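Tokens for chain A. Residues wanted.
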């Protein structure tokens, strides 16, 4: 039996902690954040039932790193690394031979490099498979909305980041044109220059999210912003937006105010076997984040190596992890939007609504 673990953490200190400790609802967020700093990592659940279509089986653990994104971005990085490493050690003590860094534990600092250097077991961020499935999901969503990717204008928000940059690199090869959105102009222009050598159409860049996405038919958004950065009025009618970021980039207002755009969550995966995560992290039973899935498939493959680390992810890594996923039977689950499943009928209705708006 192969063994793995995956590090999770609260996304919103108040919301997530009061799910387990209801009295926390009455406390100010700052008190909960303060208490988290002094809490030790803990086992959250035991994962059973993972079985590859190629034969191997694995068990795993969700281990909790008690820090929120806000804390991880504001505390001294050494303190954050110490807490992540203590969580990784807990995974090792359970027998895991590889550990995946979930959400912000892979974003802060150097993308897992320092954590891996001080760990006795293999570490991966899961970003290779997150990229593979963000691209697959966006293109599938586009197809269902009747968008031809080769003629489409694509925007990638967070395009200077580990996930965003490689998504942009791959999508630029086939898209009609592409705009890169981030916060730092020089960095964006450097990446735009690198990408244009292999791009099919024009490659633009901007630090303004609204103007960057307002003409886009396909948006992949993967920033590390701690609050929503995409508002209802920013999105083109009929567009598909794949929100890979955790916390989400797309404001919940979009769900209420726009019935003519398709918002999908990136990276919802169906792993092989009869998997029980023993914990509700907001996905339907038997489905997992893409980054979790990367850890699981590496364990099933017996590849106890630091597959994805650091801020650079190559197209070759994305292709390799896609091959490993196929070999063991991991696949994209149905679309989800704001934590709910989206049916084909709903997508057809969104498409109709967008068509109606165009006629007005
Ligand atoms: N769904 C999944 O399975 C999954 C898996 C892994 C990660 N994630 C999520 O993916 C996101 C990105 O991860 P990453 O590893 O690629 O992070 P990263 O390397 O730190 O990149 C983050 C990017 O976001 C940009 N950014 C940050 N704040 C912004 C703002 N307010 N407006 C516009 N751009 C902004 C950064 O720009 P500059 O730094 O250039 O300013 C950078 O381009 C995180 O939310 C993470 O939790 C999801």
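Reply:
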């Amino acid at each position: 039996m192969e063994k793995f673990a995956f590090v999770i953490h609260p996304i919103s200190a108040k919301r997530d902690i009061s799910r387990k400790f209801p009295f926390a609802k009455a406390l100010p967020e700052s008190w909960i954040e303060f208490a988290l700093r002094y809490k030790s990592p803990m086992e959250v659940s035991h994962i059973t039932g993972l079985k590859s279509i190629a034969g191997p089986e694995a068990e795993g653990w969700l281990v909790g790193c008690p820090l929120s994104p806000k804390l991880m971005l504001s505390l001294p990085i050494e303190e954050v690394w110490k807490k992540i490493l203590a969580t990784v050690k807990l995974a090792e003590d359970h027998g895991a031979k590889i550990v995946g860094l979930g959400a912000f534990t892979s974003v802060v600092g150097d993308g897992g490099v320092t954590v891996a250097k001080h760990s006795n077991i293999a570490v991966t961020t899961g970003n290779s498979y997150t990229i593979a499935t963000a691209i697959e999901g966006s293109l599938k969503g586009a197809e269902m909305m009747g968008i031809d990717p080769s003629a489409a204008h694509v925007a990638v928000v967070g395009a200077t980041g580990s996930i965003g940059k490689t998504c942009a690199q791959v999508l630029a090869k086939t898209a009609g044109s592409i705009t890169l959105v981030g916060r730092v102009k020089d960095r964006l222009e450097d990446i735009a220059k690198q990408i244009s050598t292999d791009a099919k159409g024009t490659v633009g860049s901007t630090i303004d999210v609204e103007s960057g996405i307002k003409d886009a038919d396909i948006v992949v958004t993967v920033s590390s912003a701690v609050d929503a950065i995409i508002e209802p009025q920013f999105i083109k009618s009929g567009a598909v937006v794949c929100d890979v970021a955790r916390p989400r980039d797309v404001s919940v207002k979009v769900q209420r105010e726009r019935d003519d755009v398709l918002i999908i969550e990136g990276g919802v995966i169906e792993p092989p076997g009869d998997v029980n995560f023993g914990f509700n992290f907001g996905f339907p039973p038997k489905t997992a984040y893409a980054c979790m899935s990367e850890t699981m498939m590496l364990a099933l493959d017996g590849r106890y190596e630091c597959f994805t680390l650091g801020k650079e992810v190559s197209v070759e890594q994305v292709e390799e992890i896609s091959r490993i996923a196929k070999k063991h039977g991991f696949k994209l689950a149905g679309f989800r939007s704001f934590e709910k499943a989206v049916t084909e009928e709903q997508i057809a209705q969104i498409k109709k609504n967008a068509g109606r708006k165009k006629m007005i």
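The longest strand covers residues 42-51. The chain has 14 helices and 17 strands.
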